Amino acid sequence: VAAFLWLAVSRGEPQEDAEGNETGEKKASEAETEETTYWLFSCLVDDVMAPEIFARDMRGTLREFRVLSLLLRSKTPQTHAHLLKHDMDLCMLQSKWLLCVFTDSFPAETTARVLDVVFAEGHKAWLRVCVAMMVAHGDAIRKAAHVPDAMAILKRAFAEQHDADALLKAAHSRRWVGAFSRQVVAKARTSAVAQLRREAEAAAKARAARESNNARRIAERNKKGAGGGDEAERAVSAGEKEKNDDEKKR
């Protein structure tokens, strides 16, 4: 979209708030780069990263953050326990890590290096980097007792990560993040899918129970209302009968 807008300006086509032909020509010269960037990111999301990340129900995003949580449980158990204790869901804290593939989290130079590794190694590299960052900043995270505090700590940690070499070295260090085979990731993903399925089934049962209870209460309320109406009608009939009897006596 940006590329087409820039091209429109360069051709002198009407556009409100245009910055002039010079700027338009400059931006039009960048259109090829813009298009290349778009297709690279499209390939990254569709072919390299895990599937269904951008599904309408966010099932892919929820699944991959659950995978990350399970990996954290084995690789940095104290931090994982702290997140659970304070009800800090990483998917809610930093969904942009996945939805924007770090492009809105790391400095530009670090993002470029990390994306190179993700293209080369696949989605597992994304998990490696997340775990490495959580291990590196575990002490600070464990001091946060509230969600906004944890969000601020993580946002600052990623924004200040200018040393891409150190990050990637840690992300691929067995001493730092432990074993990270495809089998380990696959096992975590299988467990994550099973957990999410059980939670969805439990939520569906709870919702059905609530709806059933609501329907029963409404039926009971309507029944009581109908009974009250019958009693009122009987009272009116009795009153009219007494009135007629009095008139007859008179």
From TrEMBL:
Domain annotation Rab-GAP TBC: ranges: 1-122
InterPro entries given in the database record: Rab-GAP-TBC_dom, Rab-GAP_TBC_sf, Rab_GAP_TBC_domain
PROSITE patterns documented for this protein: TBC_RABGAP
Top-rank taxon: Eukaryota
Biased composition (Basic and acidic residues): 205-223, 231-250
Species per Swiss-Prot/TrEMBL record: Micromonas pusilla
Coiled-coil positions: none
Location of region: Disordered: 205-250
Protein name (database record): Rab-GAP TBC domain-containing protein
GO MF term (any one): GTPase activator activity
PANTHER family: RAB GTPASE-ACTIVATING PROTEIN 1-LIKE, TBC1 DOMAIN FAMILY MEMBER 2B
Cited SUPFAM superfamilies: Ypt/Rab-GAP domain of gyp1p
